[in-house]
Amino acid sequence: MDDERIINISFDERCRGLRLDKALSLVMPDISRSALQKHIEEGRVFLDGKLCDSKKYTVSGNEEVTVELPEPEILEVKAENIPLDIVYEDDDVLVVNKPKGMVVHPAAGNPDGTLVNAVMYHCGDSLSSINGVIRPGIVHRIDKDTSGLLMIAKNDAAHNSLAAQLAEHSITRRYKAVVYNNFKEDEGTVDEPIGRDPKNRQRQCVIHTNSREAVTHYKVLERLGRFTLIQAILETGRTHQIRVHMAYIKHPLLGDELYGPAKNPYGVKGQMLHAGVLGFVHPSTGEYMEFERPEPEEFLKIVERIRREGR
To answer: Which residues form the domain of 91?
Structure first.
C-alpha cells in the first residue's frame, strides 16, 4: 500500500439510486468521471469493505466507501525565482498576496510561471505533500485573474489543520468585486448548489444534480450607476463560486467573459475580484490570525473611472 492513498468517505441521501461512478463523482468532484471509472475497473473501490468493480452498481445511499488512489505520477515541477508578495510566514504557514494573472499551480498550458513554481523556490522542501507534486502546500486556490490572499501549508500537519477548517467553513474569506447592475437590497445571500455545467466543461453553474452546497453572502459597498462595488463572503469554497452565484442573480462580474458579457465598456480583461481578507486559526498556536490587503492599483483605477464617469 506504500504507493497508494487510502480515501474513506460515506455516501449520503444525495447518492441514493445513482450509478456508482456518478455517486463517486458527486462526493469526489476533484477527480474526473473517467478516472473514477478506471479506479472502479481496476478494483480500487470497496463498499462496506467489499470490492465493487462495476460502475453500474446502484448506490443505496448509506454505504461506507474506500477508494485506493494510486499516487500521482512524479512530474517535474521546477522551482522558479519569481518574486512573491509575502504577507506572513513561519514554520507552518505562508500567506501570500497573489497578483492577477498568475495561475496557482501547474496544469496543461501552464507548466511554469505559477505560484507553486515560485513557492517551491522560496520554501525548498518545506511544503506539505498532501496534494501531490503538482500542488505542494496548496490548501485552497483562487482563479488566475482573481488577485489576493492565499494560505500555503509548509508541512502535512498544518495542511490537515487548515483543510479541516475549510471543511468546517470556519476560514474567513472576504472579497471585493465590481458587478453589473444595481441591487434593490443592501445585502443578501445566495444559497444554491454548484456543479460542472453539463453543456460546457469549462464552466460551473447552479445545478441541483451532481453538485455541492455553495453559500455566498454579499453586501453593497458602493452603488456606481450601471455597476456596483460589493463585498462577498464565502461560507463554502466551490470552483468559481462568487462568479457563478453573482451571474446567477443577474450581477456578473465586470471583466468576466466566461460568465458575463464578452465585452465591457472599460476593456477589463479578467474578472474584477480581489480576495482581500483571509483569517484562520494557526495550526500550531491555536491563535486566530487575520490578514488584509487592499485591491491592486488596476482594480482601484477602474473603480475610480466608473465613479468619475457615472456609468
So the answer is: 86-168
Q: Is 256 a catalytic residue?
A: no
What predicted TM-score, i.e. pTM, was given to this entire model? 0.77
Span 199-205, average pLDDT: 87
Is the same domain home to 176 and 162? no
Pick the catalytic residue: 143, 156, 197, 256?
A: 143
Residue 211 DSSP symbol: -
Q: For the domain that residue 149 is a member of, what is the CATH number?
A: 3.30.2350.10
**Domain-ending residue, one of 115, 147, 168:** 168
- What tens digit of pLDDT does each residue of 101-122 get? 999 988 767 778 999 999 999 9
Average pLDDT over the chain, rounded to an integer? 90
Note whether residue 75 is domain-resident.
Answer: no
